[in-house]
Amino acid sequence: MATITLENLAHSYLAQPAGEADYALKQLDHVWSDGEAYALLGPSGCGKSTLLNIISGLLVPSQGRILFDDRDVTRADTVARNIAQVFQFPVVYDTMTVRENLAFPLKNRGHKANYIAARVSQIARMIGMEEVLDRRARRLTADAKQKISLGRGMVREDVNAILFDEPLTVIDPHMKWELRTQLKALHQEFGHTMIYVTHDQTEALTFADKVVVMFDGRVVQIGTPDELFERPAHTFVGYFIGSPGMNLFDAEIAGATARIGETSIALDAAYPASGGKVQLGIRPEFCRLGNDGNGLPVRIERVEDVGRHVIVRAQSQAGPLNIIAHEGLRPGPDDTHVVFEPGRINVYVDDWRISPQEENAVPAGGV
Ligand code: ADP
Ligand code: MG
Predict the structure, then answer these.
(1) Is 48 in the pocket of ligand 1 (CB under 6 A)?
(2) Given its phi and psi angles, is residue 255 left (phi above 0), alpha (psi -120 to 50 degrees) or beta?
(3) pTM above 0.70, yes or no
(4) CA of 23 to the centre of ligand 1 (A)
(5) Environment of ion ligand 2 (residues, CB < 5 A)
(6) How close is the Cα of 81 to the center of ligand 2, in Å?
(7) Residues 6+ apart with CB under 8 A from 290
């Protein structure tokens, strides 16, 4: 296994990129730690597959270098990089049996028959295909074929990393959870470096130790699920992660007080003055409804019961907002205001989170 370093990396599919907009992947420096489980999360078209294919060697970046430990592999192919990759759609040998498909990467590497047999049965158990090992792949459903692809990706123990590109797309929803759990178990058992691409936050947050969030060709934040929830570095992360996502309000700030329209909001620290578009970000979890006249005036439009809590959809002079109310704090008709927990408010300037003055006012997470 190896530490993977991306140095000054960028990629444009155009031969003569004219400006930043022509880059599918904007300039990026990042070290993927050996043995860690990462998720690469972002909406369709944001550059996830481009980045993954550059790491695996399917694509040569138009700028920068890739190192595996100290070795420059920028121009080395996938085989030379010793990487396993699983794609969105199944890649299996139709004429081979399930067993032969799973054994193929090991046979190729000249492993001994008894090792292959043991490893194949272990993987078959993980993907729930022990019963069909002797069936030909051709006769199987897309779902089953994709499980074979996943198994093939995981069968070798000696790879530098395993890369998954939205591998559960064609998998039945209830099997998704099962397979994700298996992948996580596999990571815990063998400690491979894994990079798992998805546009689904639940998949990303349950699979990974570290989530790399991409937006518009850029890595906007790398963090643990908790960090992404508590301190989204970019408004996109606030909006994309969470259900519903973070509320955002245009605001003005003077020291430790913010104003949203006519309403003064107490912050837990003073923020530096800045030009640019200032916004407050507050998650629905940290908004409290009340009727004592404190906070931002709101009008409740709808209450959705989602089981453990309710989601309150409301309107304010500064735009729509969502509030999560817990058992015992059910919204009532006289709830006219919403109060924000001061310690849970994030401040954004031109979409990037800024730190309070005490922390030297360095922009957090700027890439
Ligand atoms: P994701 O995997 O996040 O959906 P991609 O990496 O596939 O995103 O695509 C990023 C951007 O690059 C998109 O705008 C896409 O249209 C463009 N793109 C992807 N592959 C190619 C290609 N082979 N040639 C030209 N443009 C491409
Ligand atoms: Mg993709």
Answers:
(1) yes
(2) left
(3) yes
(4) 10
(5) 49
(6) 21
(7) 335, 336, 337, 338, 339
**154: Cα separation from own chain's centroid:** 21
Element (H, E) at 189: helix 173-190
Tell me which residue has its CA closest to atom 26 in ligand 1.
Answer: 13
Full DSSP string of 263-278: EEEEEEEEE---SS-E
- Does the beta carbon of 61 lie inside 6 Å of ligand 1? no
What is the 175 CA–ligand 2 centroid distance (Å)? 21
325-363 pLDDT, tens digit each:
986 667 877 889 999 999 999 999 999 999 998 655 455
pLDDT at position 327, please? 66
Instruction: Starting from the CA of residue 166, give the closest ligand.
Output: 2
Our answer on whether the CB atom of 44 is closer than 6 Å to any ligand 1 atom is: yes
Ligand nearest the Cα atom of residue 15: 1
Q: Which amino acid is at 126?
A: M
Q: Is 45 near ligand 1, meaning CB less than 6 Å away?
A: yes
Ligand nearest to C-alpha 88: 2
Query: Span 251-270, mean pLDDT?
Result: 94
266-272 contact pairs (CB < 8 A, 24+): 266/342, 267/342, 267/345, 267/347, 267/356, 268/342, 268/343, 268/345, 268/356, 269/356, 269/357, 269/358, 270/356, 270/357, 270/358, 271/347, 271/354, 271/356, 271/357, 271/361, 272/354, 272/357, 272/361
Q: What's residue 361's pLDDT?
A: 46
pLDDT for residue 367? 45
- Which ligand 1 atom is nearest residue 42's CA? 3
Domains of the chain (ranges, CATH numbers): 4-239 (3.40.50.300), 243-354 (2.40.50.140)
At 82, the pLDDT band (50, 70, 90 cuts) reads: very high
Strands (E), 92-138: none
Q: Which amino acid is at 273?
A: A
